[in-house]
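Why does this matter for the project? Reviewers at the last site visit asked to see concrete outputs rather than summary tables. In response, this paragraph embeds two records directly. Each consists of the residue sequence and, immediately after it, the corresponding structure tokens. Nothing has been edited or filtered.
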Amino acid sequence: MKMKRFAAMLLAGTMLTGLCACGSSGGNKTAGSGSSGDELKVSVVLKTEASEHWQLIKAGCEQYEKDNPGVKVDVKGPPSETSYDEQTNMIDTDINGGGYDAYVIAPLQSDSVAAQIAATDKPVIALDTNINSDKVVSFVGTGNEKAAKMGAEKAVEEAKAAGWDKVECIEIAGVQGDATNTARMTGYKEGIEEAGGTFLEKETQYADAVADKAVNSMEAIMQTHPEGVAIICANNDDMAMAAARAAKGNAAYEKTIFVGFDGIQSACNAILAGEETMSVAQEAYDMGYKAVEAAVKAVNGETLEKFIDSGCSVVTKDNAQERLDTLKGYIG
């Protein structure tokens, strides 16, 4: 009996040792593991943190971390969307530091970022703007061309309703050469022309995605077109609102349709106050959340769609208050 009991104890000890060895052998890192050693770390580099759109994206990224205790999300961004060197340094530091399991990057210069990530063996998620690289597992963002086209079609409809017989559109664009800006411009042009308007492409004003330069652009447009222009579309809401303010008091522009892009809180307030006509809304919060979620899935070996659409809509006076209430719930 003693020999049988000893043999049973020996067998149980061997099995326990085997189980412990299996449990410590590694494997996929999973969200919610609760172990600091197994914590999955995701680097997120934005185009900037200096606007509400990017603050919403940041909030979505950080919410994923709150919902998944086993994931650490490090979000950062340069001072502006023309701070190329600063973003380059951030990306280099995170990739070369080797402390992250995945990278989420919103590139200011897609080609440059493609070169930076060329040697990494960690998954990369492109955010907001795609990166032409085989290292990119998935692109999470707005279908910018489709969204801008939808907004442009609505703008032509509104311009006709406002009494414009000659429906012409001039764009106050963002950073020249930026892929997202180009996609939006293409969408605006297609939407305006397919709805029966004229897109004055050669008169496009580049304002580097900032409000101050948009004011200068709008002043130049008013000098060139003292008779007024039916539609002014902008690459973001800050520029659209700035353009509308610059045109305030000019009788020729009283019925101009000012179209922004992003659907941020200030735009909703401006639309409700009659200071901006409409905005093509990105779901920025969802974009940030889904991007980090995609990064975690990629680390754990899941197959992802090449493009994950975070959604879009057109904000008008009819739905601006509802959207405003939703956004306040994200970032106050």
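We now turn to the second protein, recorded in exactly the same manner.
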Amino acid sequence: SRRSVKKDGDISITALYTAQAWIFAGVENAALFADKDAKRVFDVTNLALAGAGLFRRDLPVLRCSLAQRHAMIDFAVRGSGATQVLEIASGLSPRGATFSSDPLLRYVELDLPSMVLRKRALLARSAAGRGVLDRPGWSLVADDARTVDLAALLEADRPACIVAEGLLPYLPAAEQRALWARVAAALRRAGSGTLIFDLTPGPELPRPGVAGRGLRALMKRFTGGRSFEEDGRSRAEILGELAAAGFTDGEALEPGPLLDAWQLPFPEARTQVVLFRTRYVREG
């Protein structure tokens, strides 16, 4: 995943790895955020993952899973009918740079001040990046996704889409439910909208084995942050919690059935992505 929930002042290892994974996959505008630290993290991590793969041939390929996840979210956002998008904990995602080229779409990215500063600096290096910074319909907001008033970041009575890519796996169940309640309040202000996030339920995660546990411990030491939060909730239970928060038409999507229809990259790779998509409509 692309983020660990850490104190401000650090750029997480996961954010750097994922930024380079998007470049590896040829994601549009990902090269605007090319970073030597990201390339180094990507190469070292892939070597470690390759070592783990010698013991577990059934493990999903992380870089390909991240590429498919990003493409799935892009497709879902385009199909949402939203005229404003709020991307929570956006990291070095190139999605805002791509989608904000539409002058009719309002795009807001939210992340911690350290990430926002780094993202602005990376964009400022190139003419194309400076063009993104100058777009009136695109904005970067420096704040904590766990506490900021999300409703204040959306315009009233304008269909919205809220995206959280790579964030939910790091939040314990109680914090996930709290976030969904705050997202519902934000979409209530917008009138209607869609929530899109990735979260592989704990029972579906591959058991790591000795090599995987060692790699997880090593990555946690490097990041100084949290590893994935795991619990026993199923997809159905997560969808039930979303319904209790006021969301409707919830569904959990996987890459396999969508490879052709959504034109997902790396169709031959072993990947694991579970994407939740659900709607909120204000009553009355």
